[in-house]
Each structure stands twice: as C-alpha cells, then as structure tokens.
From TrEMBL:
Protein name according to UniProt: HTH tetR-type domain-containing protein
HTH tetR-type domain sequence ranges: 9-69
DNA-binding region: 32-51
Source organism: Desulfoluna limicola
Keywords: DNA-binding, Repressor, Transcription, Transcription regulation
Gene3D superfamilies associated with the record: Tetracycline Repressor, domain 2
C-alpha cells in the first residue's frame, strides 16, 4: 500500500506523456481517447480513473507541460552569466533539436486555438503568460540590483518582452523559410534592447549578445 501513491504518480505521468505526444503530432481536435490508450499502453478504464473526460486530460496536459518547460528555462537561465542575455536570448526556445521545442510549439498553437474559442481555457492561458512574466521579472530585478537598470515596475516591462518572444517564436517555428533562427535571435535582441533602453542606468551600455 505504501507504494500506491508512487505508482499512481507513474501512471498519471505515463498518460500525460502519451497525450502530449499524441496532441503534438495530431492536434487535439483529431485525438480520440483510443489514440491515447494505444500510445500509453493502458486501458480506457485505467485512463478514466485519473482523467474522467478528455477535456480534463487536455487541460492537465497543457498546464503540466508548460510548467515543465518553465522549470527547464529557469534552470538554463540560471547558468547564463549575463543578465541582458537572460532577457534577450533564451536560446533553447529556438533549437529545433530540443524536445521542448518540437513538442512545445505545436502544443502552444493547439492550446491557443482552444483559448480563442473556449473561455474556460483562458485562465490557463493567463497562467501560462504569468509564468513567463515571472521568469523575466526576476531577471529585470537582478539587473536593477546590479545597477544595469534604474528602478521600475518590472511587470509591464516583462509582459512586453514575453509578448515579443511569443510573436517571434511562432513566426520562426511556423515559417522557417522566411524566419530563420538567426533572424529570430537578432530580432529578439534588437527588440529587447528597445524595450529596455528607457530603463538603462546612466552611463550603462548594454553588451552585445554573442
């Protein structure tokens, strides 16, 4: 009995992983529970024990997956020595070899479709945005502590930067022929420089990001 919670966590993770891969490859509107049954190797009853409806599973998939991406980005930002680079170039978001990218962008686009047409998904969207804003607020506050930026309310500034990432990222992923990785990274740096320019401390020049 002591192992039951651990086993339940494993089963739940197994179902979510199968749903992530299935939604990313087919799109949620084309996914049936039978698809997730086949991908997970579990029975319909086994899945229904954790997720009684497809809707409840999808909402959990979107929430859990994006939380995992936040954690990964936060870890990678912590290893970047340059504060400005942490704002201007979250490079892992533009690496097609990474699982988080190949799966994450299709999930994001799918999720946004739901949020546009169904109001119950919008709080999840707001939570997703707020997660990115919180990551960027931490970096901006660090820049203020270092004397790179003057004191400010970092939240609206972070929201501007997060919106830039969303727009550039979707262009880069969906139209790579005309929006290369080089274009994406240089556009981000130029745009973030513009957003942060009014907040630079006197005498400070932002370094170039290699």
């Amino acid at each position: 009995m002591a192992l039951l919670p651990e086993l339940e966590a494993i089963r739940r993770s197994q179902i979510i992983d199968a749903a992530v891969r299935t939604i990313a490859s087919k799109g949620s509107t084309n996914v049936r529970m039978d698809d997730i049954v086949r991908c997970s190797g579990l029975s319909k009853g086994g899945i229904a024990y954790y997720f009684p409806t497809k809707e409840s599973l999808f909402k959990t998939v979107f929430t859990d997956y994006f939380d995992a991406v936040y954690d990964t980005v936060k870890q990678e930002l912590a290893s970047e020595p340059s504060t400005f680079a942490r704002l201007a170039r979250i490079q892992m978001l533009f690496d097609r070899e990474r699982l988080e990218v190949g799966t994450g962008y299709p999930l994001l686009a799918d999720f946004m479709y739901h949020a546009i047409h169904r109001e119950e998904y919008r709080p999840i969207f707001a939570r997703w945005v707020d997660g990115w804003v919180a990551l960027l607020v931490e970096v901006i506050e660090k820049g203020v502590e270092e004397g790179l930026f003057i004191p400010m309310d970092p939240e609206p500034v972070a929201r501007s930067i997060s919106a830039i990432y969303q727009g550039v990222g979707l262009r880069w992923f969906l139209a790579p022929e005309s929006h290369s990785r080089t274009w994406a990274l240089s556009t981000l740096e130029l745009a973030v420089r513009g957003v942060m320019a009014p907040w630079l401390a006197p005498g400070v020049a932002l370094p170039m990001v290699s």
